[in-house]
Design goal:
The chain has 37 residues and is mainly α. It has one domain. The chain is elongated. It starts with a helix and ends with a helix.
């Protein structure tokens, strides 16, 4: 689980998708954390 590495791979793959994917990832992580609590 290395978010920085994943973001770096996405950045090297397609810079245009960095922001949307990061937002969706953070929303997903936040949802999972709140759902588990």
């Amino acid at each position: 689980m290395a978010p920085q590495t994943i973001l770096a791979d996405i950045n090297s793959f397609h810079p245009v998708f960095v922001i949307p994917v990061a937002i969706m990832t953070y929303i997903g992580v936040f949802f999972l954390l709140t759902y588990n609590m």
